[in-house]
């Protein structure tokens, strides 16, 4: 049995890795484009976040549950699979991990590279008929799918893909970014938005990345728990 301190350390480390890889790849893409080289591209940006999530869930998911996302933790909290105080500690660890990842990026990457992309902070596409409401719905739907897959592979003991949970969760993140990155940045994770936003001081449309993912995560947790886990004991 792992202690709470060990679980919080893992949540911190996992979220740190997710922000470092996701935001860092966006900065790398900006550097290459600014220098006229072949840009990294959407597939690589999506793969960086998806691989980071998948690797960390596979590596240390057995320690803390491998949330690395306040929206996933919210799904566990609302279904009483995580107590209130423990959920709060998880959220704090995740936010601190995201901040640490963002601070490391601005320490090692020149400001001339990260500033034009606001350190990879997700934001809305500047299209007049794509509103905050559209963005919140999109983020909510994508996070719903992510948390639904997380419950199906990490929580449901009857799942055939428990050993492949990291791959399934990572691919879900990748697919979400491939679809929605041009429109919202496809955070699907309040911590992923918060860390770079605070460090880069870029708060444009920031509420979208809390309201949408948290709503989607809670809804997915409740639906999977009530309809598909009725006969499963609480973890």
What does this structure look like?
This protein has helices spanning 4-34, 41-64, 70-78, 84-108, 111-114, 132-155, 165-184, 190-200, 208-228. The chain is an all-alpha fold and 235 residues long. The protein has one domain (4-228): Glycerol uptake facilitator protein (Up-down Bundle), CATH 1.20.1080. The two termini are 13 Å apart. The relative contact order is 0.19.
Largest β sheet strand count, sense and barrel closure:
none
Mean pLDDT: 94
* Count of the separate structural domains: 1
> What's the CATH first level?
Mainly Alpha
Instruction: State Rg.
Output: 17 Å
Structural class: mainly alpha
Q: Treating each run of at least 4 consecutive H or I residues as one helix, how many helices?
A: 9
Question: What is the correct CATH architecture?
Answer: Up-down Bundle
Topology record:
Blueprint lengths: L3 H31 L6 H24 L5 H9 L5 H25 L2 H4 L17 H24 L9 H20 L5 H11 L7 H21 L7
Helix pairs in contact: 1-2, 1-4, 1-8, 2-7, 3-4, 3-9, 4-8, 6-7, 6-9
Keywords:
235 residues; mainly alpha; Glycerol uptake facilitator protein; 0% strand; globular
Question: Concise description?
Answer:
By secondary structure, the chain is mainly alpha-helical. It has a single domain, classed as Glycerol uptake facilitator protein.
